[in-house]
Amino acid sequence: MTTTSDPGTSPRSPGPASTRPTPAGAVRRAGRPRQPLTALLVATDAVCVLAVVLLLGHGDPAVVFVSTSALVVNAVAGLYRPRMDLSVLDDLPLLVGSSIASLGVAAIAEGALGVGDVDRSTVWAALAQTVLVLSARALVYALRIRHRVAGRVAVRTLVVGCGGLGAQLVEHLRSREQGLLPIGFIDDDPRLPAVERPLPVLGGIADLERLVVRHRVDVVLIAYSNVPEMVVVDVLRGCRGLAVEIFAVPRFWQVTTTHRLLQSVRGVPLVQLRRPAFRAATWPCKRVVDVVASALGLVVALPVLVLCAALVRREVGPGPLFRQERVGLDGRTFALLKLRTMRPDAASDVRWNAHDDAGPVGGWLRRLSLDELPQLWNVLRGDMSLVGPRPERPHFVERFTLDYDDYLWRHRVPVGVTGWAQVHGLRGDTSISERARFDNFYVENWSLWLDVKILLRTVGQVLRAAGR
């Protein structure tokens, strides 16, 4: 992060109460910030595609395929993401690469499906579309910059850190070329004296969420400040429900190599923090996958479940199914289902490690993770996901929250049957701080592919009998 404190020596304080995760419904779950430039670029490219198809396509399926697939390739390449610096020359290499990739996809489709005929006319159509898109973008960017300088595009912005760098950013933004309108600083201990501040200090770091809502802020810039790093991290995580984009000046920014994923304000690089997982466009797909996979899994695993339940009943007596209260998304509790692997009198909500009380059948079920199969019903009900941080009992959640700074932040996404920590061997009596670190990495870096990777590694562990 971007504070002056040493990241390795930040105090182990949970931070202000307002920065801690809150129950569902307590956070204003706003949608994404308005992105008019993104919508305008998509519409412009779509018009260019339509023009090429109508004027040069002549009913050729290959031209239609190449032109329309270019929109998808452009999106994957990040050509529709909002940016502060608008330059058609920066887009040129990506647009050319997009056209070449679209031709390659069309050639593959022709060979595999017999769709269209990629020939010279198709190549000319792709070239014409690239030129047309570049020309249209040059016009859009010129108009956009003109509107910015005229003040018709002014995104309300807060700057965290009232020091030399924060003042420098404010001074740069006053040119209006980036379309950002700074309205004030946020800092607990401003370095600049009051007479040297270009803008007022509106509050402390713990007030960030409140000030974003009160002043209708769309962008937050994180510069250097005297606030301990972990406090800033907690506050930023606490803003996860707000429709706001957050940028941070990286450490040693003077020697940071720039690339297309970095924004910049007149030579000062800015790293855009990733949106929370639930604001990703693919997030709804996670629930769809959970429902379909858990339903199919229950059907396929039913004979195994019946056999395991019969073995458990024979070993521990009646009641092979075990219910235990666990903590899930946003601190909500639910009844987690498992196959009973211990005697009823050995189960406890406050005993951390009771694995030695498992009998031969119970130990076998644990090693193969078959005792977790009933949790597919929890997934189908919506209590859990297939992949996510493992749920824990309320007693230990309360205890670990006090002992480990990052523990409670695991509950920003649904808990899971398996997780990033578990596939790295953090099962049973292992380090809680490491688990929290791996779980929060998963939350910050979630993607559908990461879920798939975790599921595949979980299958490998089950086949190796690597359970607890």
TrEMBL record:
<dbReference type="Pfam" id="PF02397">
    <property type="entry name" value="Bac_transf"/>
</dbReference>
<keyword id="KW-0808">Transferase</keyword>
<feature type="region of interest" description="Disordered">
    <location>
        <begin position="1"/>
        <end position="31"/>
    </location>
</feature>
<feature type="transmembrane region" description="Helical">
    <location>
        <begin position="122"/>
        <end position="143"/>
    </location>
</feature>
<protein>
    <submittedName>
        <fullName>Sugar transferase</fullName>
        <ecNumber>2.7.8.-</ecNumber>
    </submittedName>
</protein>
<keyword id="KW-1133">Transmembrane helix</keyword>
<keyword id="KW-0472">Membrane</keyword>
<feature type="transmembrane region" description="Helical">
    <location>
        <begin position="62"/>
        <end position="80"/>
    </location>
</feature>
<dbReference type="InterPro" id="IPR017475">
    <property type="entry name" value="EPS_sugar_tfrase"/>
</dbReference>
<comment type="similarity">
    <text>Belongs to the bacterial sugar transferase family.</text>
</comment>
<feature type="compositionally biased region" description="Low complexity">
    <location>
        <begin position="19"/>
        <end position="31"/>
    </location>
</feature>
<keyword id="KW-0812">Transmembrane</keyword>
<feature type="transmembrane region" description="Helical">
    <location>
        <begin position="92"/>
        <end position="116"/>
    </location>
</feature>
<feature type="transmembrane region" description="Helical">
    <location>
        <begin position="37"/>
        <end position="56"/>
    </location>
</feature>
<dbReference type="Pfam" id="PF13727">
    <property type="entry name" value="CoA_binding_3"/>
</dbReference>
<feature type="transmembrane region" description="Helical">
    <location>
        <begin position="288"/>
        <end position="312"/>
    </location>
</feature>
<feature type="compositionally biased region" description="Polar residues">
    <location>
        <begin position="1"/>
        <end position="12"/>
    </location>
</feature>
<feature type="domain" description="Bacterial sugar transferase">
    <location>
        <begin position="286"/>
        <end position="463"/>
    </location>
</feature>
<dbReference type="GO" id="GO:0016740">
    <property type="term" value="F:transferase activity"/>
</dbReference>
<dbReference type="InterPro" id="IPR003362">
    <property type="entry name" value="Bact_transf"/>
</dbReference>
<dbReference type="InterPro" id="IPR036291">
    <property type="entry name" value="NAD(P)-bd_dom_sf"/>
</dbReference>
